[in-house]
Amino acid sequence: xxxxxxxxIILLVCLGATYACKKSAVGFLSPYIHYEVNPxxxxxxxAFLSAGLNGDGTSQPFSVxxxxxxxxxxxxxxxxxxxxxxxxxxxxxxxxxxxxxxxxLITAKLTTQKITPISVIPAxxxxxxxxxxxxxxxxxxxxxxxxxxxTGTRVYPKLGDFILRDTTTFDAVPAIGAxxxxxxxxxxxxxxxxxxxxxxxxxxxxxxxNIITVKYMDKNGVFFNxxxxxxxxxxxxxxxxxxxxxxxxxxxSRSYYYTDNACVFRYPLTPFPLTSLGNGFNIYxxxxxxxxxNDGLPDGAxxxxxxxxxxxxxxxxxxxxxxxxxxxxxN
Length: 331
Description:
Elements: H1 4-21, E1 40-43, E2 48-49, E3 63-71, H2 79-83, E4 86-91, H3 103-107, E5 110-115, E6 118-120, E7 127-129, E8 139-149, E9 152-165, E10 170-171, E11 180-185, E12 192-194, E13 199-206, E14 211-217, H4 249-253, E15 256-258, E16 263-266, E17 282-287, E18 292-294, E19 302-309, E20 311-312, E21 317-323, E22 327-329
Parallel strand pairs: 1-9, 14-21
Antiparallel strand pairs: 2-7, 3-8, 4-5, 6-7, 8-9, 10-20, 11-12, 11-19, 13-21, 14-16, 15-16, 17-19, 18-22
């Protein structure tokens, strides 16, 4: 019996040696990987990027692969909807609005590639969408995910869940701002009179070309004539310092022309404007005093200054009409 403690010690040493020689598991692949937002809401036709997967402690790096897409309502596999490619403009370089100041400089950093409308980034699991999603029926979809890391590979059935939702092809009133009308005294930019909010209609009229046609209308339905100098940008004075923060589309587009009743602006990419030059995405224009009669004010004393907000997400041709309700064009 006196040798029993010694035998116990020897046994413990042997067990410890055996455990030390046993190869430990490498990495970790959680069975509980998930998206924090479920379902993910994707606005149809707009550029979109979701948050990534919550790995629940899964060892990095991991690689994500979609196995199948499903129509959630029917359970049917709909891989063909998401494997077809469509032409989409993509960047080949970084666009800086302060440096790339004309149409040619911007378009030089763009190219057109055929890509799938919705995809999942392998390194993060983020869901991306682009203009091509306009070709996919709206609705709720799910997808199986296969995730691989140093531990191995695991399949997560219908881990992804997203709603492809129809939406507008642009934002304007009230999503990003409001229309406004201000009469500014000639010779004194700090003195102004606020008018009634103008009426605004924006319509996407064609898939191509990428242009915005803007028309300004008086209260009687008569269009002002930009070609005759009746529509100009707000000058850098008074409440609009230099550099200006009351931007016009002339400053965003850098490629435009005038007709007898419209300002026509080309834009190279969406969203447009890409970034704000200041003061949100409000667009300001001025009608000089000699071309307008402002109700209740002496002729020639005040210019008419109109504002509307716009940001375009889906390429195409747009018609914008802004109508004052308390001013008349002077011939």
